Amino acid sequence: MAVTERARGARSVAGGLGHRTVSAAVAEALRQRILSGALAPGVQLRQDALAEEFGISRIPIREALLQLEAGGLVKIVPHRGAVVSGLSIEEVEDIFQLRVSLEPQLLILSARHLTPDDFSELRALREEYGAALKAGTVETWGELNRRFHLGLLRHAGRPRSLSIIAGLLQDCDRPTRLQLSVTGDVARADLEHTTILDLCEAGEIVAAANLLRIHVEHAGRSLIEIYRRSAAATA
After folding, report:
1. Distance of CA 51 to the CA centre of its chain
2. Closest Cα to residue 34, out of 11, 65, 60, 61?
3. Which pLDDT tens digit goes with each residue over 25-70?
4. How far apart are the first and last CA of the chain?
5. Domains in the chain, start-ordered, CATH in brackets?
6. CA-derived radius of gyration, the chain
7. Residues 175, 128: contact at Cβ < 8 Å?
8. What does the pLDDT look like over 80-106, one tens digit per residue?
9. Long-range contacts: 139-146, Cβ < 8 Å, 24+?
């Protein structure tokens, strides 16, 4: 079998390193593929194929997969081995339905109370997020997205609802990175964040809430389609 460019790079990473360092290097390489969406939820990670790709024995591969399991990125499943972990399609649908129901309402309550300092902070955060999207620093996308959305909703005066949204956004961290990586929707996400913020600052709160609903709905639909394609490919 021909050696791919990715395999050549993997072998160069593993070559000449100590046993523990090799497993850590393999774990990091696989971690980046999972976080970027190159390895989607449900994909099986076969030890023999990975050992061949990285040009090493199965022992450090097994140790790397255990490290990833400890970090919640893979699950060791009986009779299947290591599988990339992730939310089910039903869980994704539930999360985004809840976000669509709650976030626009909370924005209407919050936006009128956003101060000039709040807007300055949100614009700085949006710029940081936009720069991260353009730079392709995938590992930061979910957290920056979470902070931006919660920043918009901070003055809603609904602590229980905000706690629910915070949990949903945390659950969306890796799925958000996956959706943006696979669809290439980074420009759309950046523009919609900017426009939502502009509308809030201009006092056009209902329009901002409507755009926020469209923004969340689109991300949810895109992500569900990614999960369905992944499920069909691994069936």
Report:
1. 27
2. 65
3. 999 899 878 876 678 777 899 999 999 999 999 999 999 999 998 8
4. 25
5. 5-84 (1.10.10.10), 89-234 (1.20.120.530)
6. 20
7. no
8. 889 988 778 898 899 999 999 999 999
9. 139/32, 139/35, 139/177, 141/176, 141/177, 141/180, 142/172, 142/173, 142/174, 142/175, 142/176, 142/177, 143/173, 145/169, 145/172, 145/176, 145/189, 146/170, 146/172, 146/173
